[in-house]
Amino acid sequence: MVDERAAQRHASRDHRIAHRVGELTAQLVDASGAPLADREVEVTQTRHAFGFGSTGFELIPHANGEEDASALAEDWLGVFDTATLPFYRGDFEPERGVTRTATIRAAAHWFADRGVRLKGHPLVWHTVKSRWMDELPLDEVKDLVQSRIRREIDDFRGLIGSWDVVNEAVIMPVFENEPDGVPNAISRLARERGRIPLIRDAFAEARAADPDAVLLINDFDLSSAYECLIEGLLEAGVTIDAIGLQTHMHQGYWGEETMLAMVDRFARYGLPLHLTENTLLSGELMPADIVDLNDYQPESWPSTPEGEARQADELVRHYRSLVEHPSVQSITYWGITDKGAWLGAPGGLLRADGSRKPAYDALRQLVRGEWWLSPTRMRTDHDGRVRVSGFLGDYRVTAGAASAAFMIGRAGSDALLAPLVVA
């Protein structure tokens, strides 16, 4: 017997994600141009157009051959298709001219070889600072900021296609939480020369270095202050490709209503939205009175069975609601594992020992299950045509030992593709 209520819920959900699904007809031909008529073929999805991402930090040693993290790599690739790699200047260039370029480049190649899209984070930020810059004159600081942007984008062009150009600029001019008591150079530059000129110059340098790159501004302050900054940048003629929104929910899931109200506020600018840093805990929540999340780092912060059940439920709700919103183009979960997690919080999808939490399986079931076309057998008609419906993204069709790649790039029904050579 059919559960009519379940069917109605499914149909309603399908309607809410219609902008993520497309259908097309492909004519398959061999190398000579002859149609592959009445042939059994297999069609499978290889990547989403939507960015399902996570940090790639944890796999940098593995990619460089410094440790064997094969199980972690398998779990990472089992869900995600977009990796964020670290370019925090204090870590990337702890001494002037001494960089981690080779190490991060090896990791970028490792991910790219496996079909993973890459983003660099961040090019300009006042935190995780290079202390050697702090005492320099502002003119020299400005030149170093610009040359750093040009150097990194040039070195990684063709590998990294997206950059958080400026990170957390709302608080940048007034940031004073310096562990060594020395004001950081970036905050001084933003305060004395102005945030908008700093950001404008940074975006212009990045655009010149790679006109095809996707350039983001990114922030955790999702108040009206961020809206005012974005409006000021747009009025100043700064071309922003996407708006980055951080949602580290260490104090509890915001809920769909609050989250979508926030997303709607930033969607009004007509720019793609990337949920760049997302965290949901599987243990005790951070007290609600903590203002700066960095101020709460207990000695022990374990994952618990009750917390893991809550995390899995909230993660599914979070992803469903954001995928249903047409302005959202990417969600990056901030760390797949509890091992080495930010603030020591149990926010990963894997426990510190590498075992999977329920949230991992729940997210995988969505990304590589419900929202994915698994290998599917089809038969072409007498003209070699086959009709494919699925989530927007990259696909591959295989006939015997031959195959060809294609894309479902637009929602709805497309016209007939140009003949697809399967060879």
How would you describe the overall organization of this protein?
The chain is α/β, with parallel strands linked by helices and 423 residues long. The chain has two domains: 21-39 and 380-421, no CATH class; 52-370, Glycosidases (TIM Barrel), CATH 3.20.20. The protein contains twelve helices and 16 strands. It has helices at residues 4-16, 60-63, 70-77, 89-92, 101-112, 138-156, 185-193, 195-209, 224-235, 256-267, 305-324, 358-370; strands at residues 21-29, 40-48, 51-55, 82-86, 117-121, 162-167, 214-219, 242-249, 273-280, 328-333, 376-379, 385-391, 393-399, 402-408, 412-413, 420-421. The protein has an eight-stranded parallel beta barrel, surrounded by four helices. The longest helix is centred in the last third of the chain and has 20 residues, at 305-324. It starts with a helix and ends with a strand. The model is unreliable at 1-13 (pLDDT under 50). Keywords: Carbohydrate metabolism, Glycosidase, Hydrolase, Polysaccharide degradation, Signal, Xylan degradation. GO terms for molecular function: endo-1,4-beta-xylanase activity.
Short description:
Residues 66-366 form the GH10 domain. With 423 residues, the chain is an alpha/beta fold. The protein has helices at residues 4-16, 60-63, 70-77, 89-92, 101-112, 138-156, 185-193, 195-209, 224-235, 256-267, 305-324, 358-370, and strands at 21-29, 40-48, 51-55, 82-86, 117-121, 162-167, 214-219, 242-249, 273-280, 328-333, 376-379, 385-391, 393-399, 402-408, 412-413, 420-421.
